[in-house]
User: Fold this.
Amino acid sequence: MALLGSGFSTDKFCFRGFLPVKSGQRERELRAAAERDETAIFFESPYRLTKTLATCIDVMPDQQLCIARELTKKFEEFRRGVASELLEHYQSHPPKGEIVLVISGS
Assistant:
């Protein structure tokens, strides 16, 4: 659902589960995702989303991302953009619920 809603390529994709909690491991995972030519899909905690987006600014500043939230529920939301745009939004509107981070292939 998140992949289709993102509007990113569905030809090749990889679901990686939850991003690591530790910042160094999370950065390595995001860096690897940024270098792949396939769309990458991760679960993320709403409590860590802003930290993850801040890391994405450093790792993949121009790559298109999609935050899919509350899929199949009343307040389902898809928000697309680069990490800096998404971070700005979620700093002023703290995320709630289930979060899926979709990273477009390079």
